[in-house]
Amino acid sequence: MPPVGRAILHVDMDAFYASVEQHDRPELRGLPVIVGGSGGRGVVAAASYEVRKFGVRSAMPVRRALALCPQAICVTPRMARYAEISAQVFEVFHAFTPLVQGLSLDEAFLDVTDSRMLHGAPELIARDIKRLIRERTGLGASVGVASNKLIAKIASDLEKPDGLTVVTAERVHAVLDPLPVRRLPGLGRKKGEQVTAAGIATLGDLRHADERQLRPLFGRDWQAWRDRAAGLDDRAVLPDRDERSVSNERTFAEDLHSPEAMEAALAALADKVAARLRAQGLWASCIGIKVRRADFTTLTRQRTLTPATCETAVIAATTRELLVGWLQEERRGTGRPRQGCPAVRLLGVSATALEDAAQEDLFAVADGTRGTRLDSALDAIRDRFGGAAVSRASSLGRTRR
Q1: How much is the pLDDT for 375?
Q2: For this structure, is 159 an active site residue?
């Protein structure tokens, strides 16, 4: 990498959730592991590299994944644990640059342009980051090094797992041109199939295509997509932590039909989100819910909180109020009787407008002390014995769906 110009890293943890499970449970190492719900509608959240060779991928229905690999071991996600490890990984990032843009718990862009005088060449920084992550967490990460975010993201995926790919300005076309168009971030599966069907198989084909070929595929954005295939990208790394979010959702094996079952499910999700906030040392000023009905119609509702919080009881109460409000809207709009309820196949809880927790204010509110202590006690039990070791009564609800 030349000493002038931007230096951008894209760091992507390798099969993050599955790798955490294999690290914490040595008996799983070397075995095909699926992290995700085991119900009929469960979705693969992460797949170990041992199970990927059978065609199993993230976001695939667990039922299909088990058909491809019947011997796979399904593990229930432990989001609080993943958030804890993620916080350690991001501490490594911030040791090299303040310009860290987190994309998820296991993925981030780093702008190390101004870090070279102190920490050395970008490739050396990338190697140090990989080494420190391994030392502190026992996990592997793949890193792409380039002059912009687009190329760095593509590069990080080229030598997984435990990869390091440096793409200098002189090698951009040599690296990108032979790649399938599906490698282009943001293209999407459906659009990728359309582009391939039009005879444009590689990024090199897309880079050399003319307007006559591209306008039917991309409309007025055809030039922008051709530029992306050429590796052109001037986006900055935006370290605005407030734009990050913490969320959790669940697709149910059977649709929920009662408000009580929905409230219990939301309480369990709120508990997980709150635990992740605490693990990352964050408070949230905005809480939202996501509701997907049986007909796949998806709606969201959110509410701003003052002050910000990471307390389970507050977040759970807010999600309940949002659910009650949505149910009332449904009844007014459809004329259902008061006891009627729409069928729901998915619920989610999100926390946004995040800020760093202020430790000195943790017990400032007298009526919040008990809840905070209970949260801390439950977090400690789960860290020691696993996420399923203890549940709140509010998340158990009634058996009626």
Answers
A1: 59
A2: no
